[in-house]
Amino acid sequence: MMDCQVKLTVPVYTGVDKELFLREIYTMRRPALMKGVALGSCCDKWTVDYLADRGGAKPVTVHVSPEPRMDFLHKNFLYRTLPFDKLIRRAAEETHSNFFVSENESYYLRSLGDDPRKDPADLRKQFPELAEDFCIPEFFEAEQFFSCVFRISSCGLQLWTHYDVMDNLLAQVSGRKRVVLYSPRDVQYLYLSGDKSEVLDIDTPDLDRFPDFVKAKRYECVLNPGDLLFIPALWFHNTLALEFGVGVNVFWRQLSVESYDKRDPYGNKDPVAVSRAMQTLDRALRALDDLPPDYRDFYARRMVLQIQSRAYSTDPERTGQPHEKAESMATADMETSGYSSPLS
Ligand SMILES: O=C(O)CCC(=O)C(=O)O
């Protein structure tokens, strides 16, 4: 059944500088995998010992899960605090002699700001000794910067499918990671709960519960150390650590500062105009509540038609010449790394 799902590789680019990024990648608003972008000395230096030594014993809050696939619906994980050096060592080992729930538990660190309720994470502030090894790719203006986040995962750790409202460059420093992405245009097939998809097992989904999931086009890539993935705002992404791995991602604003919710240190609250529109929609729907069901149904359908004709984009999903070229490179790359799923 899942064979019906359209599978696409994320296009691969080499030799990307700011000019090429802005001209050929950023404007397309589609994910792109970039190889060979200078990320600094982190790619050589960040061994477990080095990270533990330089990162020190600063306390960090981590997700701890007895199962590697984290489940936000049934909350199969706990938040626990560990010194950073201990977290690194535990995340890198397969079985633990010191643990919270089980000797095989998995760890995931998404670093936080100094005041996690208010401040976005910034590696330069929370981990200055390590931040000097990481070069933030200068593909956007300094005033667009939002946050710079450490991502550390045990082997096998899978993070649920979600979207963020900021543009994102995800740098893989060590370890390999599979990333599956879905277009914002396929949102109706993803069974959302807030910003997250309820389909946790994206490889063998329960199609009785999620019959339309197969209609979402699946974009996939594997990040190797040194790779940089552009995830445009609103693109859904699901990550699976194929090995213990360390990454850093940088979020930045595409829209003006005022467009975003000021109380959002994570970059995942919908823009203020959207929150207002959602409240208005809720009021509009409540206004239909007292009507008999057949009237409510008829006028709700007319409202949907009005939304479609007024607000849906008539642009096809942007697929320009540069991406097509890059996609054939991507296919070759995937074949040499043993990827055998048919592309359709
Ligand atoms: O690297 C990961 O595991 C997750 C990355 C992510 O969700 C993000 O960059 O927004």
From TrEMBL:
Biased composition (Basic and acidic residues): 315-327
Presence of keyword Oxidoreductase: yes
The enzyme's E.C. designation: 1.14.11.42
Alphabetized UniProt keyword annotations: Dioxygenase, Iron, Metal-binding, Oxidoreductase, tRNA processing
One Pfam family recorded for the sequence: Cupin_8
The protein's annotated pathway: tRNA modification; wybutosine-tRNA(Phe) biosynthesis
Keyword presence, Oxidoreductase: yes
GO MF terms held by the record: metal ion binding; tRNA binding; tRNA(Phe) (7-(3-amino-3-carboxypropyl)wyosine37-C2)-hydroxylase activity
Domain JmjC residue range list: 104-269
One GO-annotated biological process of the protein: wybutosine biosynthetic process
Enzyme class: oxidoreductase
Catalyzed reactions per annotation: 7-[(3S)-3-amino-3-carboxypropyl]wyosine(37) in tRNA(Phe) + 2-oxoglutarate + O2 = 7-(2-hydroxy-3-amino-3-carboxypropyl)wyosine(37) in tRNA(Phe) + succinate + CO2
Domain of life where this protein originates: Eukaryota
Required cofactor names: Fe(2+)
UniProt cross-references to InterPro entries, sorted A to Z: Cupin_8, JmjC_dom
Transmembrane segments: none
Spans annotated as Disordered: 310-344
Record's subunit section: Homodimer.
Family per similarity comment: Belongs to the TYW5 family.
Function: tRNA hydroxylase that acts as a component of the wybutosine biosynthesis pathway. Wybutosine is a hyper modified guanosine with a tricyclic base found at the 3'-position adjacent to the anticodon of eukaryotic phenylalanine tRNA. Catalyzes the hydroxylation of 7-(a-amino-a-carboxypropyl)wyosine (yW-72) into undermodified hydroxywybutosine (OHyW*). OHyW* being further transformed into hydroxywybutosine (OHyW) by LCMT2/TYW4. OHyW is a derivative of wybutosine found in higher eukaryotes.
Protein name according to UniProt: tRNA wybutosine-synthesizing protein 5
Species, as recorded: Paramormyrops kingsleyae
